[in-house]
Amino acid sequence: MDKNIKMSANEAAQRILSWSEEQAAGTCFDRAGKLKPCPIGHSGACCKNCHMGPCRFVGKGAEEEVRGVCGASLGTVAARNVLRMIAGGTSAHSDHARDMVLTLLAVAEGEAKDFQIKDVKKLYKMADILGIAYGDGKGVNAVAKEVALTLLEDFRRQTGELSYVKRAPKKTQERWKKWGITPRCIDREVVETMHRTAVGVDADPDHLLLQGLRTALADGWGGCMISTDITDVLFGTPSPVKAEASFGIFKEDEVNVVVHGHEPTFAETLVDVVSEPELVEYAKSKGAKGINLGGMCCTANEVLMRHGIPTAGGFTNQEVGILTGLIDVMTVDVQCIMPSIAEISKRFHTKIVTTSPKAQIPGAVHIQFDEHNAKEVARKIVRLAIDNYPNRKPAAKHENQKFPMIAGFSHEYIEYMQGGRWRASFRPLNDAIIAGRIRGVVGLAGCDNPRVTATGIHRYIATELIKNDVLIVSTGCGSGACGTAGYLTPEMALENAGPGLREVCEAIGIPPVLHLGACVDNSRILTIASAMAAEGGLSDEIGGMPAVGIAPEWMSEKAMAIGCYFAASGVPVIFGGESPVGSSKEVTRIMTEVWFERFRGALHFEPDPEKMLAMTLEYIDKARAELKLKKYEPGRFGTERVLMDMAARREIEKAAKPHLGLGA
Questions:
Q1: Which residue among 345, 375, 391 closes a domain?
Q2: 440 by DSSP, 3-state: which?
Q3: Does 432 share its domain with 486?
Q4: Same domain, 369 and 493
Q5: Total domain count for the chain?
Q6: Same domain assignment for residues 498 and 622
Q7: What does the buried/exposed string (b/e) look like for 477-510 if buried means 16 or more CB atoms within 10 Å of the residue's CB?
């Protein structure tokens, strides 16, 4: 790789990566440099859905003239490829959600004794939505069981509608009904999508893409929302916590255990056991001062949001973390795990432990997690880490850089912070947008990607948006990118935000970038947008609000599902990088112009960060104009303020005394 090109915008990561090149320890960045994307498949112009192909659509006039062996057009193929990505992403989130439902059921039936229901209020809120009665002597576990059994139907129901569809604004629901994309259940939509994209079935790009939106909605208003709610019920609804981010979270004199992946159940168990006196004493017997728990990727976000467990960052940092030589055990479950971590760990002493029955990696240790004996499994893995502590090797690259951060902004807390316990409301946020203090809202999400300067586009977009008075809500690796840059503190607003946004952040005491959780917690953005619509003063649906979704470095099928469920819900979405449907003008037009006309949402692909920013602000300003809100004027609120130290304040007071008749 070119030595002059920064692989990561994280300075600590870049130092470690530069050292790793000298040591010939290959990472995803090296592989990205060696393996160039297929230029045909990259733009959606390749079909491999049967064994007559793969068929490549190349040459002039490919869209109009070239056909696959079966007769499929380029538009058909590009649309089918997108649908299969949506189905894959929906499967990932929703399989995670199914496990959470089954865990709730096991807790309710007394079979998972290491867990309990921590947020009864949220459980009852779910029961209200689902039409389940509670109170009058009905026990909490009885309500939880009925909630779990009802939600299981959302995976297997054959007709009707997904339970949580009713949480969307009425006008948004009407759009879905008009175009036939209201999801029936999760599993049926995924299966039908796979069927429709098989050889010889659905060939109309528009018709295919409508099914893609229906499947994506089953993810957003089904799998993601179900998982978020149940995780809150079992482990607590997040509220702001202090934490730290980047590679300095690893401690040289303690046993370092890192949780990586996406499912929170095992990670929550580790939080409980790492502080047990017996295990701490065992660690000391091996020469360590204690046990340090840290996180990586979205499992990190889960325990960060609830317990303040520090994070080493997102997707591209997992190999880099091992290169520090300080991780004694990294546990992994599912999603966004690089198989290469088992190989690179052999150069050091780190043990990779797979815990899910769904995912194993050659070269890793497999210790299967079971919620029925959760703490027993967790203790076994912590003991493995302690036993491995004395095996650390000197050939590593330790880093001390870390940044403070504030996370834990759930839907419930954002509502609470605007009015307190008795006057909780989204009215102040709506009013700030109406007045122009806040220009608009952006959901900054998605993966970080080694094919660009990783996390760099996230940081650029975040910095420029808050300068322009745009409030950011972030999730997943987008939050990791902001956290490892030091962007998730209230001080960030004072130093970088525009005067209107800064005024709002100062008044409430919040950062200009609100960390909402893992990638599955994008559902919080949907419920927040729905609450803002219900509050009034802006749009009476999600569509039409001055809001945009951005995934500047996306790479996962989950990101495609997320982007499409936001587009179907009425949010214009911008993905970074080259378009996976760029080979088809027809499919591109449908996903941008046609979707916007029907649903007020769209999905764009744009590799240029400056153009992404300009497109975002244009969408926001056009929405403000259509809503007849005050035109946004940069710098209208407040004046430029300078943070002063005590000496500067004394000088001002000294200069003011003669004018006040107080003497010099």
A1: 391
A2: strand
A3: yes
A4: no
A5: 4
A6: yes
A7: bbbbbbbbbbbbbeebbeebbbbbbbbbbeeeeb
What mean pLDDT is predicted for residues 570-580? 97
Would you say residue 378 lies in a domain? Answer: yes
451 and 595 part of one domain: yes
Measured CA to CA, the distance from residue 470 to residue 623 in angstroms comes to 14
> 50-59 pLDDT, tens per residue?
999 899 998 7
Give how far the C-alpha of residue 348 lies from the chain's centroid of Cα atoms, to the nearest Å.
30
Give which of 112, 151, 116 is closest to 131, Cα–Cα: 151
**Do 470 and 508 fall into the same domain?**
yes
Does residue 594 contact residue 627 with C-beta atoms inside 8 Å?
A: no
Residue 579, classed as helix, strand or coil, is coil
- Which residue blocks in 221-349 are alpha helix, DSSP H? 225-235, 264-273, 277-285, 297-307, 318-323, 340-345
CA distance 146 to 352: 38
> Cβ neighbours of residue 285 under 8 Å, at least 6 residues apart?
none
Residues 334 and 481 in one domain: no
Number of neighbours of residue 218 by Cβ within 10 angstroms: 33
CATH number, domain with residue 359: 3.40.50.2030
Got the DSSP string for 598-653?
HHS-EEEEE--HHHHHHHHHHHHHHHHHHTTPPPP-TT-SS-------HHHHHHHH
DSSP type of residue 10:
S
639 occurs within a structural domain: no
Does this model's pTM top 0.90? My answer is: yes
* Residue 181 confidence (pLDDT) above 90: yes
Q: 261: alpha, beta or left, given left = phi > 0 and alpha = psi -120 to 50?
A: left
Cα of first residue to Cα of last residue in the chain, in angstroms, is 64
Which residue range forms the structural domain that includes residue 562?
Answer: 421-626
Q: What is the pLDDT of residues 96-149, one digit of tens each?
A: 999 999 999 999 999 999 999 999 999 999 999 999 999 888 999 999 999 999
Q: Is 285 exposed, middle or buried (0-12, 13-18, 19+ CB in 10 A)?
A: exposed
The span from the CA of 170 to the CA of 45, in Å, is: 38
Is 389 in a helix, a strand, or coil?
helix
Residues 431 and 541 placed together within one structural domain of the fold: yes
Cis peptide before 54 (omega within 30 of 0): yes
Residue 655 in this model has a pLDDT that exceeds 60: no
What is the SS3 assignment for 454-493? Answer: ECHHHHHHHHHHHHCCEEEEECHHHHHHHHCCCCCCHHHH
* Nearest-10 Cα torsion for 311, 316, 320, 321: 20
A 10 A CB-CB count for 365 gives: 16
* Pairing outcome for strands 351-354 and 365-366: parallel
Cα-Cα-Cα-Cα dihedral sign, residues 167, 169, 172, 176: positive
Q: Are 534 and 169 in contact (CB under 8 A)?
A: yes
